[in-house]
Amino acid sequence: MLLAACGINTIPTKDERAKAAWAEVQNQYQRRADLIPNLVETVRGYAAQERQVLTEVTQARASATQVQVDASTITDPEAFQRYAEAQDRLSGVLGRLMMIQERYPDLKSNQNFLALQSQLEGTENRISIARRDYNEAVRDYNTEIRTFPGALWAGTVHRWAKPMQTFQASAAAQSAPTVDFGASPPAQAPPVTAPAPANP
Fold this sequence. Notes:
- By secondary structure, the chain is mainly alpha-helical.
- Helices cover 62% and strands 0% of the residues.
- The longest helix has 37 residues.
- It is elongated.
């Protein structure tokens, strides 16, 4: 009871809380990855000529899902950075993909696209919340192992305790995505106009 009152269990408790928050981040990123193939196929049906953006999205998704992560990733700065950068790249190209709809009215009004867009927006919101909750849990844990009396336990009983990494806002995430609309949209039939009346 005396040890418990001194906080011997605080580090393991906060460690588990941070790991649970990390698992939720991974879950939401996976949810987003699962939505992308259907989204890409729907866009391709209306905007096949946007090959560059479609290819970039597909490649970014592949890169993001190929990064192997587990509970140990959050205490490995290099592994954590690779994962965060891969996800940030995917976020950037997804933003460009969603802006393509402005050039294609038929795509913009397609029910399947609208449903996928809504799901993606909801998932991005959940990712933002999950990252925020994870960062808060990690900061709480990191503070515990660096301050007294937590630092005392971290240096003796809980020597396994290591500082965890937090997500940082990327430069791309702080600016709106852009798409080059300089290229002409698909050719459409010119509107039919009435001939000008003849001069009397």
